[in-house]
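Researcher: Re-running this chain for the archive, since the previous output was lost when a drive failed. Same request as before.
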Amino acid sequence: MEMSGRGKKVAAVKTKTTISRSTRAGLQFPVGRVARMLRKGNYAQRIGSGAAVYLTAVIEYLCAEVLELAGNASRDNKKRRIGPRHIQLAVRNDEELNTLLGGVTISEGGVLPNIHAQLLPKKTHRADSSKDVNSQEF
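Model: Regenerated structure tokens:
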């Protein structure tokens, strides 16, 4: 024990480090915030302690998946930043994410480049074009 300047004894301070639930679960997303939103959202009368951890892990995984694909799309377009267009391309080109986000409209995302096969010019099949050419000499 140490003495303070005025002669009173000061109790030894025990430092107890608090470990967040996100750190315990090995996640980056906030487990406590998701738990609070589950409680306040009136989704059920009772919310289990593992429900928030599980939901947070699922949300973090989906976010990481979308960001990885969108990063690849932005690199393909020679851009350093991920924009809404890159997220749209990432989601729509991935089969599982497309089914998950099928009814979602991404603002400023645009559409996938697609030309219907019937609108493409027809390929003419010529055997030898030199036979058909008539010279202008008389």
